[in-house]
Amino acid sequence: MFEHLDATVLARMQFAFTVSFHIIFPAFSIGLASYLAVLEGLYLWTKKPVYLELFDFWKTIFAVAFGMGVVSGIVMAYQFGTNWSVFSDKAGPVIGPLMGYEVLSAFFLEAGFLGVMLFGRKRVGPGLHFFATLMVAFGTLISATWILATNSWMQTPAGFAMNDKGQFIPVDWWQVIFNPSFPYRFVHMVLAAYLTTALVVGGVGAYHLLRRTAPLRAGTMFSMAMGMIAVVAPLQILAGDQHGLNTLEHQPAKVMAMEGHFQSHPDGAPLILFGIPNTQEKRVDYAIEIPKASSLILKHDLNAPLAGLDTIPEDKQPPVEIIFWSFRIMVGLGFAMLALGIWSLYSRWHGTLYQSSWLHRFALAMGPAGFVAVLAGWVTTEVGRQPYTVYGHLLTAESRSAIAAPAVATSLLAFVVVYFLVFGAGTFYILRLMKRLPRDADAHLGDGPIRSAGITPAPHLAAQHGGAHHGA
């Protein structure tokens, strides 16, 4: 039943499916590991129990997310040997060592200190335990460094030569690792991970503030998350702009697809906000656009000429419809995050950060937005690289294993079933953990340091304290 399907398309679908599941877990664990380090550092500095309580709450969630990220990553590596063996053979001399460095320098570092962070606080002392937490956080960043260096090299390959077997041979590892797009991609992805975590933490805090449960813990995490979003969201927009300019220089066809520029614009290109790409007629139907704004953004000149997809051979053009919409989803959510950060600053300034129910509802709704934006960004990046696996040098159609479509389709269906069962259950468990913010964390609310946190105790707790004093 699968014989009429294209094996290359099926192999791409399988990798896209597995990487979509995988990327959300590292994006969350990178930011959450750093958040745990901040929480423990604040506890050691201030001795306020709320930071330790939040650390214990989030470390369990981190452990589950970390485990699911490891499992989903192993499956992705398996596909290099099954569906993409030609790519592995040709690019292996470059890709293999980079992936090996990731395992040796990052994963072992994370795994080595993870047990100490999760179970060792009463055994190794506060100083060594904090060091272990820092090493886990540092390990996640190093892991991201190697993975992004690998992906960036596939986007903007540098520092290599070709041998007589058609293999990519590294000649300068500095150029391989620090290829032209790596700095921009690394900054953009790490900021995305921090935003993703801040949105989840803020959403959980908002949920419990709306339910009026554990107000000190919920208020503290909500305040920290909103502060992070207010700082990082504008930085991410700036980093994304710089990344776009770098992409225009090295992968112009990707930017043309993102912008929906089927035709060249010699006198300034419009910024198409919305529309429906029509690949048959080579235009964007029902376009809502701002004249010459694209030239202003990309070239900083209203009248700067911008080339279109009409300058690229059709067999070398990426799929416009997918990139056009994924890019707009990513950018739209980015500006929604900026709006959330600005709103939180306004509420903080007016002293209503913990009482503004509409802000809390907005933060709760934005909780999953970071994951969606990360997925949309990776779709834009990876689909925009097509029709190449190594941009400009190795076509996707030439990278696939000699495996029939039915075999690829069967493994794809198996992945779909297993992934939704396993990772669906893991995600459901994480959501249950987030819902169970313990009430006993606020047992000390009436002791005095409530005002320093900027929030008031829950009404039922205040009533209990008042009744006790009245009876006394």
Describe the 3D structure.
The chain has one domain. The chain has 16 helices and 6 strands. The longest helix has 40 residues, at 7-46. It has helices at residues 7-46, 49-82, 85-119, 121-124, 126-155, 173-177, 182-211, 215-250, 252-259, 293-299, 320-349, 357-365, 369-384, 405-435, 450-453, 459-471; strands spanning 160-162, 168-170, 271-278, 283-290, 388-390, 394-395. The protein is mainly alpha-helical. The strands form 3 sheets. A two-stranded antiparallel ribbon has the order 1-2.
Q: Summary?
A:
Its main location: membrane. The chain has 472 residues and is mainly α.
Q: What are the main properties of this structure?
A:
472 residues; two-stranded antiparallel sheet; single chain; mainly alpha; globular
Annotate the secondary structure layout.
Elements: H1 7-46, H2 49-82, H3 85-119, H4 121-124, H5 126-155, E1 160-162, E2 168-170, H6 173-177, H7 182-211, H8 215-250, H9 252-259, E3 271-278, E4 283-290, H10 293-299, H11 320-349, H12 357-365, H13 369-384, E5 388-390, E6 394-395, H14 405-435, H15 450-453, H16 459-471
Antiparallel strand pairs: 1-2, 3-4, 5-6
Family: Belongs to the cytochrome ubiquinol oxidase subunit 1 family.
Subcellular location: Cell inner membrane; Cell membrane
Protein name: Cytochrome ubiquinol oxidase subunit I
